[in-house]
Design a protein that fits this description.
Belongs to the unc-93 family. By secondary structure, the protein is mainly α. It has two domains: about 190 residues, Growth Hormone, Chain: A (Up-down Bundle), CATH 1.20.1250.20; about 230 residues, Growth Hormone, Chain: A (Up-down Bundle), CATH 1.20.1250.20. Helix content is about 80%, strand content about 0%. About 55% of the residues are buried.
Amino acid sequence: MPVFACFLWLAGALLLFVFATRRIRRKHTMVERNLVNVLLLGGGFMLIFTSFQTLGNIEQTIIDSIKKDLPSFTGDGYTSLAIIYAALSLSNWVTPSVLSAIGPRLAMTIGAITYCLFMASFFVPHVVLLYGCSVVLGAGAALIWTGQGMYLSQCSTGETISRNSGIFWAMLQMSMFFGNLLVFFTFQGKTHIDETTRSVVFAVLIAVAIVGLVCLTCLRRPTSNGDAPVDLSRDVRPREAFLSAIRLFRTPRMILLSITFVYTGLSLSFFSGVYGSAIGFTNAIGTSAKQYVGLNGVFIGVGEVLGGVAFGLLGTRTTTRWGRDPIVITGGVLHLVAYFLVYLNLPNSAPFGNTDALAYIQPPSALVAMGCSFLLGLGDACFNTQCYSMLGGVFKSQPAEAFSIFKFTQSVAAAASFVYSSYCGLHVQLLILVILGIIGTVTFCLVEFAVKRERPTLERDYEK
């Protein structure tokens, strides 16, 4: 019951925030309205992904329990997630055209509805329904994420994009706390997740997602440096928007950045779907192994939020003085350390199901596992906040196209990861992550170095 009270308080606080920000707009014209928009955007995403990220983290564990209660059910969590990201990757080529027609706010609202439908499908466990809703969610995810990138870019300037990206990322990753705390307490002492427990978790997650949907419907038009709305009409037809995305994708900078985006997709699928399940399936951790699936998400969230807050408060200063590359290099090092510790701590067969196998640390350490979760979250914040800053700053004239390419490459990688996760052991997955992590860090730095070289030239041209 304390967990339910926490969720009710959270939902009430967000609703009060919505009405408070509307009153601020009316009474205080000097308030930076675009910052209010960013806060409201982050709040809506925090609630929606409180639900979805929690469900993604426990989906394979939940489905494993459903199969024991309902042997006729043959669905697979990794396959569902692979379908979601495959549909998301394909849909991203259409979303610039859709956004040119309906705008980012309506696109995000439609996308949020698909998340609610997907979570509701777990009340009726059926393979066709699970995979069908996975396809629908993939298309909706393309709308909500491309719309988010476009809207965040419209709410930002070159000076505020790093700050706004950090604020949004920190609020988004707070979603890792609430849902996973619910899982931690409701799964306490359970080796099998019964139908009643599953229904409670699904009901709470759907309710929270609906409140997030309401928040997104309250978003207002971004404003320019005064109180006048930003001109959002680019006079781009859907066909032209699609061709523009193709042309941008073929540029040298975007090709290099796409390698970084691929790595972020691989790491996302690993820590959001594979790593938590691997902890829960490692019997040597003890009877609390299933609980640690939820606690793993909490520690990932701590790292994500710490990184988002740090780069949100210091983003403009660090980007101006040192650039984005030191932060990305830091994220790469943190991930390499985490992968090495995971290799030492968890057995190779952990992603496939309950196992009594052991790794090099015997018995496996829950403390080390949670420390790796923190490092994975903090490193992910390093990569993603700087990717957002790069896309929103360098490609500000083509935000929908840039963010569509980002989500496309990231989603293709995530889908591929969930496919090979069903066949490759933990060691092979870690090797892939190490190789792509190093390459992705290098390619991002190459683009950032080129951007740095252009800044003095642009400043001299401006002075002339």
